[in-house]
Amino acid sequence: MAAVLVASALAAPGIAAADASDENATTPQGGAVEVSYTETTEIRSGEGWRIDCAGVGTLEGIDVACADDGVTLVSAGFDADLGIQTLTVPQVSGATRISPVYRVRLEPPPVPEVSVDRLDLPVVVGEQALVPLSALGIVCAVCTADGGATIQVDTPPPGVSAGVSGTHLALRGTTAGDAIVPLTLTDDARQSVSIELTVTFVAASAPAEAPTIGALHVVGDVEALDLVEQTWGDVTIVCSTPQSIGLRCTEDGGIERTGTAAGADDDATALPAQLLFRVVADDGRLAWGSVTDDADADVAELVAPSWESEAPLSLVTVPVDEQQADAAVPLAGLARLLEGIPAS
Fold first, then answer.
1. CATH number for the segment(s) 2-106
2. Letter string b/e over residues 194-217, b meaning 16 or more CB atoms within 10 A of that residue's CB
């Protein structure tokens, strides 16, 4: 779909029309144009007018293509620093020539969204928990670390420590009960959204003789990793949503790359990718693990908690067709059931 601006102002009163031989004619204003960051935007000539492509200008960060009846504008990617640019689009009707100047800027992308406002992972009081950012269900059209996107932990409540890295949220609490951890996300366009993430802290409840269970948070080459090796205890591994784009579990406990988001480079490693999984014991105990992809890593490394208040943001969630998810991951249905179980 294309956004179309018809240059109907060419026939409106007050627009200076000059003879083709008059080089000193007043330059009319062609209006404002917002270029979509995902779709084609067009400036169409008015009825009876032909665009003189030889005189059409260029734009930084926006590809300009010209035909007799219209100019096509395609964004090369959102850049908050481009600002407003001008584009001259000369048009001719018989012996009359005008050269309207359009004010062009990039259309702001949608504001970031967070689909998860309560973690279904109960955090044991006094213990440290890592939450992969993919678990928050962050949907962001233009969130890249290089573009300046960030995730920030605002002031947590008393008794709760929270920090963030580019891949994980770290949590620790001293009192059982629900706590609100405020987060602010800012995208490349400098648009921000604030949310309140509910985290449930619980007292340790497993019997002392119960075998321990757990899962690791690692960064490494996913093609060299096995999920079973990242867990311990008598558990079932559950791959579940939300996930970042790019990875999914296989039926044999492995991990495979699935590509990148629409509009990204063809290189499968162009976007950061992170796989969230859960391990569940027969008695209902639950733990989270994650694998953050790094194709260049020789060995997998454990994720170290960060207690910084702000970090770059580039791990985002892309909606996945649920039927496709079920076909690839037989336990996806179980995962959705688990997400409906209260954390306390």
1. 2.60.40
2. ebebebbbeeeeeeeeeeebebbb
